[in-house]
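Researcher: Re-running this chain for the archive, since the previous output was lost when a drive failed. Same request as before.
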Amino acid sequence: QVQLVESGGGLVQPGGSLRLSCTASGSISNIRAMGWYRQVPGKQRELVATFTSGGSIVYRDSVKGRFTISRDNAKNTVYLQMNSLKPEDTAVYYCNAEILSAGRWNAYWGQGTQVTVSS
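Model: Regenerated structure tokens:
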């Protein structure tokens, strides 16, 4: 069984920083794409930043220059460093990964971590 566990969310003032972490655990043979999405009530979940299956990095336009995604393959972990946070970044942030487990590729989601940007 595969699990994604996120951490690092919280309350921060505008202009502040947070670092999110997501670790995949379980019976994992390989990880393809891995990244971050976010969702606010009443809206669709949207891509924030991700490592694609081809190895490139994609950022949402509104976070370019402020957010940085990185990964530690040895730890099956992806990070999201968020700087210069704005109130509009407030959302539940979800980790997503395409993982090979028991001979099959599947997409997995974490449980989500709340990020609130407010003074």
